[in-house]
Write a structure and sequence with these properties.
The complex is a heterodimer of chains A (114) and B (112).
Chain A: E1 5-7, E2 10-13, E3 19-24, E4 31-38, E5 42-50, E6 53-57, E7 64-68, E8 74-78, E9 87-94, E10 104-105, E11 109-113
Parallel strand pairs in A: 2-11
Antiparallel strand pairs in A: 1-3, 3-8, 4-5, 4-9, 5-6, 7-8, 9-10, 9-11
Chain B: E1 4-7, E2 10-14, E3 19-25, E4 29-37, E5 43-49, E6 55-58, E7 61-66, E8 71-76, E9 85-93, E10 99-102, E11 106-111
Parallel strand pairs in B: 2-11
Antiparallel strand pairs in B: 1-3, 3-8, 4-5, 4-9, 6-7, 7-8, 9-10, 9-11
Classes of the chains: A mainly beta (114), B mainly beta (112).
């Protein structure tokens, strides 16, 4: 158990809908990262937040958005869902953004879009 | 294009044998990560390598980094069945804004 929690574990929804994935980092970690894993695209970095501020951005679609709240939990919002958005979404956290910054991954949320 | 290439993609090896997984990357980077993923599970951090010539070892796994060649290796010594998993390398790019780019993964199967 990495100490990173994600909810829900599974989510099944329809095309065109909007969902919110939630992540709570390890105690003391200020940085949160979001990743998408699919058979087609492999592991893709989406976005990183550090202490509430966006720090780095990857291949995140405009239909997706994220934020980190003052209590350091983070949410990833996915809207106008398409079949191709079906994937495993991981959140990771690290103590800092620089230096060693080993990342600890949560168990993931499996999103199925029908 | 920012690329991280791993080879081999699939590796089937006998218990007790040694083997090396290679990770080549095409962009400037300030750190390299190795992860393990078991089927249906999340990623487990194995190593973070920061500098040229860095070598880290944990049990039967040893990772090294050559930043000049943009190459990292993950060496497996005397493989055991429990090491069967998919191994990913990833880099944090330093060209432009930071991004984390993952390799395609190496699926390792250790046969008894």
């Amino acid at each position: 158990d990495s100490g990173v929690t994600q909810t829900p574990k599974h989510l099944i929804t329809a095309t065109g809908q909007r969902v919110t994935l939630r992540c709570s980092p390890r105690s003391g970690d200020l940085s949160v990262y979001w990743y998408q894993q699919s058979l087609d695209q492999g592991l893709q970095f989406l976005i990183q937040y550090y202490n509430g501020e966006e720090r780095a951005k990857g291949n995140i679609l405009e239909r997706f958005s994220a934020q980190q709240f003052p209590d350091l939990h983070s949410e990833l919002n996915l809207s106008s869902l398409e079949l191709g958005d079906s994937a495993l979404y991981f959140c990771a956290s690290s103590v800092v953004s620089t230096g060693y910054n080993e990342q600890f991954f949560g168990p993931g949320t499996r999103l199925t879009v029908l | 294009e920012l690329k991280v290439e791993q080879n081999p993609l699939f590796l089937s090896m006998q218990e007790g044998k040694n083997y090396t997984i290679y990770c080549n990357y095409s962009t400037t980077s300030d750190r390299l990560y190795w992860y393990r993923q078991d089927p249906g599970k999340s990623l487990e951090s194995l190593f973070v390598l920061l500098s040229n010539g860095a070598v880290k070892q944990e049990g039967r796994l040893m990772a090294s980094l050559d930043t000049k060649a943009r190459l990292s290796t993950l060496h497996i010594t005397a493989a055991v069945h429990d090491l069967s998993a998919t191994y990913f390398c990833a880099v944090r790019t330093t060209s432009g804004t930071y991004k984390y780019i993952f390799g395609t993964g190496t699926r390792l199967k250790v046969l008894a």
